[in-house]
Every structure is written in C-alpha cells, then in structure tokens.
Amino acid sequence: MENLKLIKPKHILGVTIGALFSAAAIKIFVRPGDLVPAGVGGVTVLLMKEANRLFNITLSYGPLYLILNIILLAFVFNKLGKKFIALSFLHVFLTSLFVEIIPEVKVVSDPILLAVFGGIVNGIGSSFALRMNGSAGGTDFIAIYFSMVKNKPMWDKIMMFNVAVLLYSGWTYNWSLALYSIIYQMASTKIIETYHDRYKLSSLHVITAYPEEVSQAVFKVCRHGITQMDGIGVFKHKYKAMLYMVANEFEIKSIVNAIKETDAKAFIEISSVERIEGNYRQKPLD
Length: 286
What we know:
Helix content: 55-70%
Structural class: alpha+beta
Oligomer: single chain
Radius of gyration: 23 Å
C-alpha cells in the first residue's frame, strides 16, 4: 500500500490522456480500417471476429479487452510494483471505457494512412502510460517483466507474437488487411521504442578532482556501481580522477545534477550503450 501513495495527480492525468489516445486509435483507425492492433488488442479483435464467424455472437471490445488484461495481470501481480500495476490497470480500464464511449469516426479511407497514423496514435497512448511509470497493459506486462530480468528491451519478442497473430488473421480473413496491420504495429512499436527510455542505457565518464564526494552524491540518487581511475590533468599537471558508470537514461538528469552540485567544474561525457553483460542493477518498478 505504501507504493500506492506515490501515485500523484500528474500520473493519473498522464495515464488518462494515454488511455484516450489508445481508445481513439481503436475507434478512429482500427475499426474503420478493419485492422488488427498489437498485443491483447489484436487478440481481442480476433476473438470478436471468431465469435461472430463461428457462433454468430457479437462481442463488445471494451469488456473483452478488460477481461483478457485481468488474466495477464494475474501472472505478474506479485512480481511487479503495486504502483506500476495500479497505473497500468487504470490505463486498461479507461481504455476499455473510452472505447465504448468514443463515437466511431472515419476520417480517411486510405488503408495505409489508417495503418500509419493509427499506429502513431496508439504508440503515443502507450508511451504516455509508460512515462507515468505504468503501461498500456496486455503484453506490456510480460515485456516489462522480462525486460527487468534481461536488462534489455523485449519489444522485438512482442513484435514476433504480434506477427503470429497477424498471420492467423491473414490466413483466416484477409491478407491485405493483415499486411496493413503490420504497418500499424510497426509504427506503434517505433513510437514506443523512441519515447520509452526506462531500458535504454547510457555510460558516463566523469573527470573530477573530488571523486569521493561526487561518488557519494551519485549514490544518493541511484544505486549503480562506479569505477574510479586516477590520473593527472596534462594541461595543469593536477590530480584528476575519472569515474565510470552505466545508468538508465531516465536517471541521467538526476545523476548529472548531483555531480554538478558537488563539483561545478566536473567534465561529464555521456554515451549510449548498446548492450551490457554482467551484473547490473535495474531499478525496480514501484
């Protein structure tokens, strides 16, 4: 319950905005284009089609989407932070609600435009939820859980699952619409990868005359290891130390601020890290 107290009004607002985008993607782009969205949304659409084709039963997207997410949530409920789960469920619930409320609007008829811009809108919705330390639910629960274990993004694995769903959709219904749906999913995935920085890593090289003080300041804002290498500044022939560390991109701003507050003259170089091997502490989700 303590983690739930960390939820602020800005988190609720951000998740609500994200849910609006996610629902708009379904009602304005997916439905008119008869597309199959990514993850649980795609499974929901397929189940609706199968129920209608096999049993002549019309299912509602919102309730079915909510039920499938609750099932997946049960698998990770005790493995992820309660704040993360609460915000993720809020996004799922609001998306289910907004899908039933927002009127279906057909802004364009071109399937390529529907696929591209629908994917972008959906990606923005998911990114809002992720940046508020929640998620868009569904396969995001699984992807984020394994990303924490593997210390690398797992969106490519989710993309493989989505492709399998689309292959079934194309085989059973319409190959053209399945191919357009791939464009939708690629656009959505690209937006998420671009704006979600929790699992992107950066390395920092810090040149300072006060390595111990700087290190202790950094430890107050994050819990990553730091390696110190002593040396001499060639220009003035004075003692300098180089501190090296790897951190997640979302931590960089607080780390740099801590360094500058301790040593305003510190020289900091920041680079992107493609991959790491070995022990690395991923900050747990609240």
